[in-house]
Each structure stands twice: as C-alpha cells, then as structure tokens.
Amino acid sequence: MARNWGTLAELAASLIERGKAGRRVVLSPQTAYLIGIKLQTADAKPERDEIALMICRRGQAELCSEPCFECMGRANIVVRAYGQKSPARDDISRQA
Ligand SMILES: [Zn+2]
C-alpha cells in the first residue's frame, strides 16, 4: 500500500478528518508501526516537577537548592505547551 501522506501533521489531519466523518481508516503496516510508536511515547512527557528539576540550577554555587518558584513557573510553561495542566496555584506556592 502506497503512503498517501507527507508529514506527520498531514497524517494526523487525515486521521482526524476521517474519524470526524465516521469513516474507516486502513493503515499500512509501516504507518501502523509509526502511529503505535508515537502513541506509546505520547504520555511519556515529563511532569512539571520533573522539568523543574531538569532546568533548575539547584546545587550550583549560590543558586537554587530546591526547584525554585521561577523554575516551577518555567516548567509550567513547558507542560502547558504540550497540553498538561499545571498543578493548582497553591501547590506551587507550597513547593516554592
Ligand atoms: Zn531554580
């Protein structure tokens, strides 16, 4: 079966369109494999606190000793960019 999509965005748009229209989708084995891999990793994105730990300069001389409020804020921006909800605002204050 020939591949009839160019980019992942086109493939996604096509799948969404067919799904909305109630139409079946037949995938080539290669496309099914690709979609499976993408779905498997879709939820593997780090949570806010994990991102804050990655970007915080804690442990470096005279910088953050814990994930700081500023880094939590930056981490919130990142998780919002991929659709995760940030924990409640008072959670952030307690951790800062
Ligand atoms: Zn920090």
Task: Describe the model.
- The chain has 96 residues and is mainly α.
- It has helices at residues 8-20, 29-42, 48-55, 69-81, 89-95.
- Helices cover 57% and strands 0% of the residues.
- It is elongated.
- It folds into two domains: 8-42, no CATH class; 48-95, no CATH class.
- The structure holds zinc ion.
- The site of zinc ion has 8 residues, from helix 4.
Shape: elongated
- The percent range for helix content is 55-70%
Characterize the main sheet: none
Summing up helix and strand content along with how strands pair, one would put the structural category as: mainly alpha
Number of domains: 2
Strands, total number: 0
Distance between the termini: 54 Å
The averaged pLDDT comes out at: 82
Radius of gyration: 20 Å
Summary keywords:
mainly alpha, elongated, binds zinc ion, 5 helices, 96 residues
Report a brief summary of the structure.
The protein is mainly alpha-helical and about 100 residues long. Helix content is about 55%, strand content about 0%. α3 packs across α4 (about 70-80).
